[in-house]
Amino acid sequence: MTVRRFVGVDLAWRDSTPGRPANETGLAVVDAEGTVLDAGWARGVDAVTEWVLRWTTPGSVVAIDAPVLVPNATGMRASEREVARAYGRWKVAANASSASLPWLGGRTLGERLAAAGLVLDDGVAPLPAGVAGYFECYPYTTLVGTPELGYDERRPRYKRPDLTLPPEARRASRAAACDDLLVRLDRAAGGPAATTPPGLGLRLGSHPVSGLLLDEPSPLVDRAYKHREDLLDALLCAWTASMRAQAPERLQVLGHGTEPDELGRRATILAPCRPEQRREPSPVTLPPVALPPVALP
Questions:
Q1: How far is CA 131 from CA 39, 47, 76, 288, in A?
Q2: 39 in Cβ contact with 228 (< 8 Å)
Q3: In this predicted model, what pLDDT tens digit does every residue of 108-128 receive, in sequence order?
Q4: Which of 77, 90, 104, 153 has the fewest CB atoms below 10 angstroms from its CB?
C-alpha cells in the first residue's frame, strides 16, 4: 500500500563550499496521523536531497522553508510582498530573495528534487496523480495563521532576541517563548485533546528526537538554541505539508497571480491563514494517493 508522507525542510540557504560547510538544516517527516517518523539535521544540499528522497513516497508532500523558485533577477518576489500584506498585523514579513543573492540553496534543492521526479506544487496548477510534490512555506505564517495556537495579536519571539529587553534578559526571554510555543503546539495538535481538526495532528512525543523538544527546556547558548530551533521549524514545515494535503482550504497561495516560468510554474508560497488574513485563493486539491487494486473474492 502506498502511504503518503509529509516532509518538512528548514533549509540553510547557503550551501557547503570546500572551505566552509553549510549551516545545519532541520529535517522532519510525519504520517497522516501526525506521528513523527524521523527527525534530525543535515548539512548541505546533497545530504538534504538524499534524506528527502529516502523518505518521499508517491503522493508525498514536501514543504521547504526557503525560496525554491526565484525567477526575478533583483528585488523581491510577489509572494514575499504578499506575506507582509496578509500577515503584517501579526509582525510577520518575508526576506527578499532574487537571483542576485549569493546563497540560493532552496533553488538548488528544488532543481535536485525536480530532477528526481518530484513536481513543484505552486498551488495553482493541479499535480498529476501519484507524483510527490514540493512547495515553499514560511513557518511564521503557520504559527499566526493557525488559530488553534492562539497567536492572535503577533508572532512569537522565538527566533531573534527581543532587543527591547536588557541584554542579560534576552536569551531567557527567547527560550521562554520557544517553550511556550511547544506547549501550545502540543496542546493544539499533539494528543486526544487536540483542538485542531482530525487529520491535522503533530505528535512531537512520538519520536525520541522530537520528543526532547517537550522534555528539555530551551537552551540559552546561541548555537545549541539554533540547533533546537531548526528542528522545530522543520516540524512546522512538515505540519504545513500535512495541512496542504489534508486541509487545503486552510491555506492560501501567496503570489497566485505571478507569471509562470517556461515550465508553467509560479513562484508562490503556500501559507496557512485565518479568514481575516486571506488575500489569495486556497491551493488546488491534491489528487488522492493511488492504492493498489483490491482483489475481489
A1: 23, 22, 30, 10
A2: no
A3: 999 999 999 999 999 999 999
A4: 153
